[in-house]
């Protein structure tokens, strides 16, 4: 299934020639063991720890550079002083010597031999300082670096920077010198910058070079440029003399490449540019970088690569790792995740709010995957608003683009994400203009999600933007008919919706313009990884003090405890079985979302959240943190990503046998038209063929309809599966698909004969019972305790309704039985929070209700489990709700309520301790539980509470009818005991 495991040797050979960042032979690595003192009280500057004598009095620790300092000091944030000794070659004297940091998070100050050098702000971009006048050549030297990390979890305030006030990435504190450090030497006239512009229209590479003359007089120099192909042959060459004035001298040379090969995902062909500055024949400086000839743009409302249409299939990527946190644990791990992304059908990776490190980008260049240039700005209200916000945003934008604009894999800059502050909305245009000035070659997206004013994209070399629908939408676990239709209708005009039978359908996105090119840049569901196997990996290969080791263990313990708390451990005595079933539901949901999206011709691509899951989005990944594919999540998402798919719909999903159903089979193809054989079968639970059809047709490019027929289901009963197989002329299978549905007969939906009493201010419950010929009484306080009471919809805030509810409670306390088909309670504000258990006596008015995000899940697993109980007679039990339950699935759940759980949810909260600002740099919050169907003892009687959407789907979905009748029969039986 996964080519990685068989091709790893070949891949490693390929990567050995990966593109390098700036390359200078006169370099000395300072990576290795340093000494560090953690300055928790921030007293080092006052006490002059940057002086060797003072530092030597302190108790220091060894620390590896590069590394995140959380690997050494658990969850530390604040100040640290790093130092080490090094020797400079005597023959470097007279040269310009620089110290080069690949990245230090967040604020750094540098001393050489106790002499101040400079400072840098920004945690994810490289920086350099000239230091040759401070060095002792041929002798030992000392470097001291003071680092202030982002302040995330504590209330420290250091150097004017407080909690969450600086740009940060949510995957870890990521403090310290977390990328490499080098010394480099060069002549006084040297290269300050080289920017390569690939122009495929003319097969030219334009090299924009800045030559810096550090002297106070002019220098005559030779500049030499060569471009080599993949075999090392020179395909373009130029050499010229220049007069270098003091300061920066700009050059722009166009280098023609005959018969240029274009870089693509299938053929990631890289050239190598070499630039040298010479004083006569003495080398002053040299630079080299690999690059590809490619152009990513939009033409005719379609993404294009090198002028060819491309349906964009991206995956969201946080760049979090199990041991090294922000940096790949190994090159092999980075190769594995990129390779698995490509093999799953993705052509783009969207690093999220953290610029990717050089090694990872090297691999993307060489392996052939498009990437988004992400800035560590606007990470969901981060950094928080302070007067420094505008400065730090511009600083991150400028440094990130300048550092990465020679990367072939990066085809787009994404400036902001989900803006919700006026100051950032105000900066959208100015930052887009700045990005265009820094890099004319790439597409620029001003804001993912379009929350501010709707998204804009700037095409390469364009100064004015094109309006663009960029949408974030998470369906949760149930991609029901309404949710599926929402994807079909999104960004459609009213006329288009009317023509497709989608009038009135709720659509997705903010500031969406109907009929405009659309991209769903966040979509997907979630599932818990196999924490049992993950913990074994952490024992063998992990670091016990880093957050991922801790939160994987705590999350597993939380699930075990929650299952026991509500009795679901009888269904899942081995918690691992729950995790694997969650992954199945995750895969089904992802597949249905992507099928729906691809059936919308206005949508030109999507980004699945996420490739790898960790921290507070641990459930979102197709791969776990150790880069293991999560069973059906990976496989089913991969299936939906293929160039040709055959989506299936049964309308409705749950069928009344006498009414029949509509079977629809579609084709979606990114390839040229080809002859195909479409075979469709409907199989019963015993694999007996109930219906079949074979078509000889054309599998056309784009979206097509293969089958749209009305099924006669009067002789059907039970569970069925539609199976589709599409073959080409040679008999080779192009694609397969299947979709289950269930049929309910009249005999399965016989209305109860026993009497019940009803409270139903809204009226829909009574109307249904009347239509089914069910006799019922109006509830009164004097009702006989042998008659159960059904309470339907009502105005929850209406005092009269609340009084009736309390009257029903009094009836129960005296020995009666009541069923609330819609739970009354208090909505929990925000997404979710830590809760205390709620006593049964709080019912029916004061249950605490988790709303949609916490109940159906966004990118996190929210598993609603159905037990074997009379309420669910004739329906699947001892499993997670899906399939037949997709319509009645709850959108609210009673959090931590006491009682007998007949159906309920297990999940974890996102923002612990009511602090929505922490955003889980240390992992997810506690595991909690909630009830969907609960039986509670109230006084002498009992109360059945339900959050299932039964009333909403009566006479629309047979499962709703079945549940109501089951509840009625069960409640009558209870009163007869």
UniProtKB/TrEMBL annotation:
May I ask which residue range the UniProt record assigns to the signal sequence? 1-21
Q: Which residues form the Glycoside hydrolase family 2 catalytic domain?
A: 298-451
- SUPFAM superfamilies in the record: (Trans)glycosidases (SSF51445), beta-Galactosidase/glucuronidase domain (SSF49303), Galactose-binding domain-like (SSF49785)
- Please provide, alphabetically and separated by semicolons, the GO molecular function terms listed in this UniProt record: hydrolase activity, hydrolyzing O-glycosyl compounds
Any one biological process term the GO annotation gives: carbohydrate metabolic process
Q: Keywords on this record?
A: Glycosidase, Hydrolase, Signal
Glycosyl hydrolases family 2 sugar binding domain mapped to chain residues: 29-149
Tell me the protein's name. Answer: Beta-galactosidase
- Which organism's genome codes for this protein? Carboxylicivirga sediminis
Q: What is the lineage of its organism?
A: Bacteria, Pseudomonadati, Bacteroidota, Bacteroidia, Marinilabiliales
